[in-house]
UniProtKB/TrEMBL annotation:
Interacts with POLH. Interacts with REV1. Interacts with ubiquitin. This is DNA polymerase iota. It comes from Puma concolor. The chain holds residues 2 to 483 of 745 of the full protein. Residues 6-18 have a biased composition (Acidic residues). The gene is POLI. Error-prone DNA polymerase specifically involved in DNA repair. Plays an important role in translesion synthesis, where the normal high-fidelity DNA polymerases cannot proceed and DNA synthesis stalls. Favors Hoogsteen base-pairing in the active site. Inserts the correct base with high-fidelity opposite an adenosine template. Exhibits low fidelity and efficiency opposite a thymidine template, where it will preferentially insert guanosine. May play a role in hypermutation of immunoglobulin genes. Forms a Schiff base with 5'-deoxyribose phosphate at abasic sites, but may not have lyase activity. GO terms for biological process: DNA repair; DNA replication; translesion synthesis. Its EC number is 2.7.7.7. The keyword Ubl conjugation applies. Belongs to the DNA polymerase type-Y family. Keywords: DNA damage, DNA repair, DNA replication, DNA synthesis, DNA-binding, DNA-directed DNA polymerase, Magnesium, Manganese, Metal-binding, Mutator protein, Nucleotidyltransferase, Nucleus, Schiff base, Transferase, Ubl conjugation. GO terms for molecular function: damaged DNA binding; DNA-directed DNA polymerase activity; metal ion binding. Residues 60-273 form the UmuC domain.
Length: 482
DNA sequence: TGGGGTTAT
DNA sequence: ATAACCC
């Protein structure tokens, strides 16, 4: 059995520092303390650097579960443990465990290629996300017990802002405890830890909390994962992936340039996606260094000031975006893709299936959706990714019957969805769809907001602006007769 | 390429 | 309503 968490190495090892690291610290204006120098006994008495334009320094952890869907499947069926396992959606292996990776299976490989590479590969169907979603929220809730500021990224990643928690622990350090402080996990770039540097101390405490988080995930949920600790989300995310699987890494500020320069291409920078990469390449920008040194003015003209300034900061490892608590989901959706759907009856059947699952989910959540949306993808040989959608408000009498099981809420909602469908698709002409998706959003808590109370004025549907006809967001909903 | 999510415009 | 980003 794998243990959840072990310290991979300790702070202040006996290795000689190399010249580059010594120079990093010289540039940062540090004293260059040796391990034998006395460690300050008073935690608050150390001068410290404030990076990133005066904003106070943060401690962020990025937690990234190992091959999450495969782990959930191995928990559901322990007989799968030890075997090469892939999780299949349609004809893709969307993820696989490490036994499978050792045998050459990669994420998003087609089933055909994966079986060719690895004939012993065991496949399980992962098109129903229910169990993954439930486990995903258990992880987020566990992390929220450490600190309430947890931001989800997909089903298998979370950011936690540890700044406050770290400060509390640091101030509670007893005399002598500071000099006994150790790192949990790896230190990126094998950088020397300086306990006289308050930024190092805070990040070390962050690494301890990260280890406690991973230990709790393993003991309470049976899940392993990686963690990265750094001073912002970008760096935390980049450093969490340095030692995989089931390991953690802390980034000290002096090594942040080494980390971002380790990226081989701007497309590896989180926040720079497919489209922006293409536009950057058209400007001759390929490496992180290219982006760092490219003219800001020209970049702003090409990409717009917002994107240009944001990604150029990213290229220097700067990211002031806060960890935004995700809270409950903003939307619920279910989709199904297929080779061909070309009749209205066929579409209606698929839509009914999607809606039935959604109603179960939304019922469990407790909140009520006020908007419904239908999304389609039309067959086209070239432009593959493009989707079209229509949405409309859910009639209030339908919303009210949502929680109460005995009324039929399917029929009126399917009627609405089919009207949205016919608004997008001319059913009198031949059509070829490859995806249908239904989304319930604009979720509202079922508050009994009485007139004159705070709740009344905080409820958008009730407050004065809703009577003035200025709610432009509503005007884009397509009008569907009830 | 799947089955999800988010925010910005 | 779409387009970009994330997994």
């Amino acid at each position: 059995e794998k243990l959840g968490v072990e310290p991979e190495e300790e702070a202040g090892r006996d290795e000689e520092e190399d010249a580059a690291k010594a120079m990093d610290r010289a540039e940062a204006g540090e004293a260059g303390c040796s391990r034998d120098a006395p460690v300050p006994e008073e935690p608050g008495g150390v001068p410290w650097l404030v990076p990133e334009g005066g904003s106070s320094s943060r401690v962020i952890v990025h937690v990234d579960l190992d091959c999450f869907y495969a782990q959930v499947e191995m928990i559901s069926n322990p007989e799968l443990k030890g075997k090469p396992l892939g999780v299949q959606q349609k004809y893709l292996v969307v993820t696989c465990n490490y036994e499978a990776r050792k045998l050459g299976v990669k994420k998003l490989m087609t089933v055909r290629d994966a079986k060719e590479k690895c004939p012993q590969l065991v496949l399980v169907n992962g098109e129903d996300l229910t169990r993954y979603r439930e486990m995903s929220y258990k992880v987020t809730e566990l992390l929220e017990e450490f600190s309430p500021v947890v931001e989800r990224l997909g089903f298998d990643e979370n950011f936690v802002d540890l700044t406050e928690m770290v400060e509390k622990r640091r101030q509670q350090l007893q005399s002598g405890e500071l000099s006994a402080l150790t790192v949990w996990g790896h230190v990126y770039n094998d950088q020397y830890v300086n306990l006289h540097d308050i930024l190092h101390v805070r990040l070390l405490i962050g690494s301890q909390i990260a280890a406690e988080m991973r230990e709790a995930m393993y003991n309470q949920l049976g899940l392993t994962g990686c963690a990265g600790v750094a001073s912002n989300k970008l760096l935390a995310k980049l450093v969490s992936g340095v030692f995989k699987p089931n390991q953690q890494t802390v980034l000290l500020p002096e090594s942040s340039q080494v980390l971002i320069q380790s990226l081989n291409h701007v497309k590896e920078m989180p926040g720079i996606g497919y489209k922006t990469t293409k536009r950057l390449e058209a400007l001759g920008i390929r490496s992180v260094h290219d982006l760092q040194t490219f003219s800001s003015k020209i970049l702003e003209k090409e990409l717009g000031i917002s994107v240009a300034q944001r990604i150029q900061k990213l290229s220097f490892g700067e990211d002031n975006s806060p960890v935004t608590p995700s809270g409950p989901p903003q939307s619920f959706s279910e989709e199904d893709s297929f080779k061909k759907c070309s009749s209205e009856v066929e579409a209606k059947n698929k839509i009914e299936e999607l809606l039935a699952s959604l109603l179960n989910r939304v019922c469990q959540d407790g909140r009520k959706p006020h908007t419904i949306r239908l999304i389609i993808r039309r067959y086209s040989p070239e432009n593959h990714c493009s989707r079209e959608s229509r949405q409309c408000p859910i009639p209030s009498h339908v919303i009210q019957k949502l929680g109460t099981g005995n009324y039929d809420v399917m029929t009126p909602m399917v009627d609405i969805l089919m009207k949205l469908f016919r608004n997008m698709v001319n059913v009198k002409m031949p059509f070829h769809l490859t995806l249908l998706s239904v989304c319930l959003c604009n979720l509202k808590a079922l508050t009994t907001a009485k007139k004159g109370t705070i709740d009344y004025y905080l409820t958008p549907s009730l407050s004065t602006t809703s009577h003035s006809g200025k709610r432009s967001f509503k005007m884009k909903d397509t009008h569907v007769e009830d």
